Amino acid sequence: METLERSQPNRQVTTFILTVFLSQASPAPIRYSVLEETESGSFIAHLTKDLGLGIGELNARSARVVCDDDKQRLLLDRQTGDLLLREKLDREDICGSVEPCVLHFQVFLETPVQFFEGELLIQDLNDHSPVFPNREMLLKIPENSQPGTVFPLKLAQDLDVGSNGLQKYTINANSHFHVLTRNHSDGKKYPDLVQDKVLDREEQSEFSLTLMALDGGSPPRSGTSMVRILILDVNDNAPEFVHTPYEVQVLENSPLDSLILTVLARDVDAGSFGTVSYSLFQASEEIKQTFSINEVTGEIRLTKKLDFEQIKSYHVETEATDGGGLSGKGTVVIEVVDVNDNAPELTISSLISSIPENAPETVVSIFRIRDRDSGDNGKMICSIPDNLPFILRPTFKNFYTLVTDSPLDRENQAEYNITITVTDMGTPRLKTEHNITVLVSDVNDNAPAFTQTSYTLWVRENNSPALHIGSVSATDTDAGANAQVTYSLLPPPDPHVALASLVSINPDNGHLFALTSLDYEALRAFEFRVGAADRGSPALSSQALVRVLVEDANDNAPFVLYPLQNASAPCTELVPRAAEPGYLVTKVVAVDGDAGQNAWLSYQLLKATEPGLFGVWAHNGEVRTARLLSERDAPKQRLVVLVKDNGEPPLSASVTLHVLLVDGFSQPYLPPPEAEAAAAAPADPLTVYLVVALASVSSLFVFSVLVFVAVRLCRRGGAGSAGRCPVPEGHFPGHLVDVSGTGTLSQSYQYEVCLTGDHRTGEFKFLKPIFPNLLVQDTEKEIKESPNCRNSFVFS
Fold first, then answer.
1. pLDDT greater than 50 at residue 510
2. pLDDT above 90 for 96
3. For a tag on the chain, would you pick the N or C end, based on fewer CB atoms within 10 A?
4. CA-to-CA separations, 741 to 36, 561, 603, 617, in angstroms, rounded
5. pLDDT > 70: what percent of the chain?
6. What residue ranges are annotated as transmembrane (predicted)?
7. Taking the C-alpha atoms of 705, 706, 710 and 712 in order, what is their torsion angle to the nearest 10 degrees?
8. CA nearest to 486, candidates 476, 496, 478, 494
9. How far is CA 600 from CA 306, 373, 586, 595, 746, in A?
10. How far apart are the first and last CA of the chain?
């Protein structure tokens, strides 16, 4: 892309100074020669050997051959190292008349960059014959012309050079003229016709001679032209140019038909012999196409665009002829002045379109710049924008390398558009811009990153298996396979933890699933680590902590610890009829396996034999008398207490209490209803006799024990001892049972309990409350010393 806009601030390198420096520092060029018209594919040289390189190094380093004229005339076989001709070379087409004809080329290698300069001398073949511009020349000579007079003739053109070029002219034998070959300062050979004898028009008015041009080839080639000579009457004075040579400078961008200059010749003769007409003399085709001369005025005008880069000056021969046929010769030297009309050119020789990130200094492109103008118009400055991680380095003559200034990061920028600007120093300045797109390929240099360092997931217990409980997520800033994340469960630190049986993870999206139904009462929380790995090589990974909290569900009904419901006989509580309102009968102790409000228990009296006689405290399960007892109250009371939690929906359990109302603890208590039912059942006579005998013996034993206990209690005289259980004396170990605030009791209690020795019931009796931490030791000592209780328990 070319533009004439003002260039932006950038890093600039002055090309022409570095070119001179590098040219002086470069080694001598390698030189070869070849005959023109040699067939394409012909062998020129073995570069591997001539450059001192190793076998296969040309191929490994991507060697290239570039000619100065930008035409690929040469071919490099990287495998063999041979330099070959790509096409037939025509010396005349390449160099024209320039001798010697040298084709300059460069051999450059990459990784690392290295340049070699070469020259190919194209040797001339004699493949062109001399050619005259006209098949016939007309020459008018006055009859009074003296012997020795020289008459210039039109020269022949031979495209060959050196010995194969034009060497001499000859003319057919005659007695009046001979030809001389005159060497001009520009290297051309001109034929001059020399008069040998006095002419007599009346004797011979016309001569026809054959002019032959010979080159120096072997065999020589020739060209001929007919010279027709007319003998004229006497015209004493030939026209003469006022100035010779004329010198003029013309801008190369001058418009067509612009006036170059006006030539002027004078003839002192009179009449028609003094009238002068102008023409171009022995003009080449190039001059004829470029300039024209007015026959009358002598004005020379431009008929073709000038190009300083092709032709820098013209030598135009003019001729002024009078009416008598005499002529004078003049020279016009036209110098073409260079104008900055050529923008710089940029040719890419090597280009890498993709660079891996984090790579060290890398050659992106090798290119050459050129400006066909001269002087300041041909001086160039090459630059790229400052805000890019790339730099330009001059390497060899007008060659530059574009390299990375620092490692690239694809995650920061994946693509760079680099504009190379080449600006000349002419007026106005011209510039050329070339855009290069460089892609940064991805390298796996970023590990996946979780969105959180730790995750907390909540799962309600009793979940269904394979339940989706949550997700983890990680992202990778790389691209392609380097950014594809795979999730996995990491092995737990404790090998005994069966993590694989609890949860699983989807490796593609990080979804977590509970494999089994979780139980809050068995496992309230667990944690594990998950890993996220990409698919790069080598793979990178990261970890995150996942904590799973199990939410409680109301899936456990209250469980009654006391009174026991699975005993062989129901528990019976004894209550003296003299008990005051609020008398503590017993306490229902229950627990709930759930947590939180699901474990908050409340108690209520569901059924009672005498409604209003007993009450249950809702928060601690204590069963107390609600009023004074009377003789009308039935001695047997049956209470059903409901224990209910605070879950949603609430779960409950019930417990049945049997209460016997007695006048005093010395009164034998009534058998429980179950015992009466058993007694009422029919039995065989033998069983009845055995039961009666056993009852008699037992009653006697019990009465004796009661008398003994009563005597001991009376001695102590305590009101609390009146409620002791009259049981037979026996050697039973004493125990203290502590039932602390199980369930949701509002405060702690301790109770002194004795187990009766009656074989029919074996039930607990609460005798008196014991305050915590004050009377525990004394109470235990008292119970252990008392022979009236077989077993003692303390509940709190």
1. yes
2. no
3. N
4. 119, 12, 15, 15
5. 82
6. 688-711
7. 20
8. 476
9. 110, 101, 20, 8, 11
10. 99
Strand partners, 177: 195
Question: CA–CA distance from 273 to each of 146, 230, 277 (Å)?
Answer: 19, 17, 11
Are 672 and 572 contacting, i.e. CB atoms less than 8 angstroms apart? Answer: yes
- Residue 723 burial by Cβ neighbours in a 10 Å radius (0-12, 13-18, 19+): buried
Domain boundaries, the chain: 30-119, 136-232, 240-337, 345-441, 449-551, 559-662
CA–CA separation, 509 and 35 (whole Å): 73
Write down the CATH number for the domain with range 345-441. Answer: 2.60.40.60
Q: 136-232 — its CATH code? A: 2.60.40.60
Token pair, residue 625, equals 């008398």
CATH class, 449-551 region? mainly beta
Write out pLDDT tens, residues 576-603. 988 899 999 999 999 988 888 888 999 9
pLDDT at 663: 83
Beta-bridged to residue 214, according to DSSP, are 168, 222
Q: Classify domain 30-119 by CATH architecture.
A: Sandwich (2.60)
| Structure letter (DSSP) for residue 154 | P
Burial 301-315 (b: 16+ CB within 10 A, else e): ebeeebebeeeeebe
Instruction: Supply 76's token pair.
Output: 């490099």
Backbone angles phi, psi at 700, to 5 degrees: -65, -40
Q: Are 98 and 134 in contact (CB under 8 A)?
A: no
Please name every residue paired with 122 in a beta bridge, in sequence order, or none if there are none. Answer: 34
Mean pLDDT, residues 216-244: 87
- Reference 329, options 230, 243, 247; nearest CA is 243
pLDDT mean over 357-381: 89
Q: What is the pLDDT of residue 665?
A: 59
Closest alpha carbon to 713 in 730, 702, 700, 727: 727
Amino acid at position 173, single letter: A
| Beta strand ranges found along 153-289 (DSSP E) | 166-171, 177-183, 189-195, 206-215, 222-232, 240-241, 246-251, 259-262, 265-266, 276-280
Q: What is residue 483's DSSP assignment? A: G
**DSSP assigned state of 271:** G
Cβ–Cβ under 8 Å, residues 396 and 108:
yes
- Which residue type, as a one-letter code, is found at position 484? Q
Q: Are 264 and 278 in contact (CB under 8 A)?
A: no
Which is the CATH superfamily of the domain at 240-337? Answer: Cadherins (2.60.40.60)
Domain 559-662 listed as CATH 2.60.40.60: yes
Q: How does strand 652-662 pair with strand 601-608?
A: unpaired
Place of tokens 């502590």: 738
